[in-house]
Amino acid sequence: MKVNGIPTRSIRSLDGGTAVEIVDQTSLPYHYETRVLNDWRDCVEAIANMRVRGAPLIGITGAWGVVLAAKEDPENAALLAAADAIANARPTAVNLSWAVHRMMGALLPREPSLRFEAAVKLAEAMTQEDVLTCRAIGEAGAPLIADLYQKLRRPVNILTHCNAGWLATVDYGTALAPIYAAFERGTPLHVWVDETRPRNQGLLTAWELAQHGVPHTIIADNAGGQLMQQGDVDLVIVGADRITRRGDVANKIGTYLKALAAHDNDVPFYVAAPSSTIDWKLTDGKRQIPIENRASSELLSVRGIDSTGRIAAVQIAPVEEAVANPAFDVTHNRFVTGLITERGVVAPTDLTSVFSDKLLPEGGAS
């Protein structure tokens, strides 16, 4: 996608895979900055502290983390220890462990001296696969928006939650990919952008959409239901961090409430995600998907820019307050109209038939 008119990706390798450059998302939307990761520990820090975020991008960053681990020490003990640390940097998005296990499955059978070169090749291939997958998601989802426009004969109002654009992937995005594809084809549309507290990832969505000239409006998280009641939302598209084989979806906290409101108001609720987000070992999302609990400081303070243009945090509640900060919630498949995937729009309960080849051990997620 583009930043100030320049084609840009959220992650890229440097110097033959000996380092990785990322867009540091902790500085957005206030400042656009990049950051170089020189070893696998930098990748762990970037994932844990959300310098990179979004399930697909976390996975690709994990893959490059394995590359940097192989550069440092390709022997089994060191590589396995690094891979374990990378895979556990964040618990909910299955793409991370999927990517690390895919990398390790290719590297461990090789002689240590051959592992770094092989790791670079596979990580580059996975990076490009993510781009093509997200483009395919966009191609699959754009007709949903175009068909609504043909029916309504006015701009289609789409509600999003969190950020599932190119910043959450290598390029194009998941939930935003159909929006970008439809917009580029000339379909009139407008996006309602949830702020998505406490990390305010909706501001990243607004920043992305502004870079591409897509009409949008930021709204408070609790405004979506009222907009649906008033008939101002035609379609909801969100991303996902983990999907069970029966189609239950874990996504950013607050997604479940949007799904309930959409169901009550007969608004189609779609989830856009690649097959790497499906955890084939899980069936019951509510009982089995691990939910990350993050630091209380994310709720007790807010970040912004001060009068000098510097990013600053302001405390909004006493530090001694008790805080619960779950980062994700789970939406049951009965509230999901369809899953927008690289293989088309799929009913939640049809995943195992559409992706039957992914059920094999080498294709399944861990």
UniProtKB/TrEMBL annotation:
Claim: rRNA processing is one of the keywords in the record:
no
The biological process GO terms on file are: L-methionine salvage from methylthioadenosine
**Residues the record marks as active site:** 241 (proton donor)
Question: What Gene Ontology molecular-function terms does this entry list?
Answer: S-methyl-5-thioribose-1-phosphate isomerase activity
Question: Which positions in this protein are listed as binding substrate?
Answer: 53-55, 90, 201, 251-252
InterPro entries, per this entry?
A: IF-2B-related, IF-M1Pi, IF_2B-like_C, Initiation_fac_2B_a/b/d, M1Pi_N, NagB/RpiA_transferase-like
Q: Looking at its record, which EC class is this enzyme?
A: isomerase
Q: SUPFAM superfamilies of this UniProt entry?
A: NagB/RpiA/CoA transferase-like
Q: Which Pfam families match?
A: IF-2B
Q: Which UniProt keywords apply?
A: Amino-acid biosynthesis, Isomerase, Methionine biosynthesis
Can you state which reaction this protein catalyses? 5-deoxy-alpha-D-ribose 1-phosphate = 5-deoxy-D-ribulose 1-phosphate; 5-(methylsulfanyl)-alpha-D-ribose 1-phosphate = 5-(methylsulfanyl)-D-ribulose 1-phosphate
EC number(s) on file? 5.3.1.23
Pathway the protein contributes to: Amino-acid biosynthesis; L-methionine biosynthesis via salvage pathway; L-methionine from S-methyl-5-thio-alpha-D-ribose 1-phosphate: step 1/6
According to UniProt, residues marked as the site described as Transition state stabilizer are 162
Q: What's the stated role of this polypeptide? A: Catalyzes the interconversion of methylthioribose-1-phosphate (MTR-1-P) into methylthioribulose-1-phosphate (MTRu-1-P). Also catalyzes the interconversion of 5-deoxyribose 1-phosphate and 5-deoxyribulose 1-phosphate. Part of a bifunctional DHAP-shunt salvage pathway for SAM by-products.
The UniProt similarity line reads:
Belongs to the EIF-2B alpha/beta/delta subunits family. MtnA subfamily.
> What name has this protein been given in UniProt?
Methylthioribose-1-phosphate isomerase
The protein's organism comes out as: Sutterella megalosphaeroides
Which gene name belongs to this protein?
A: mtnA
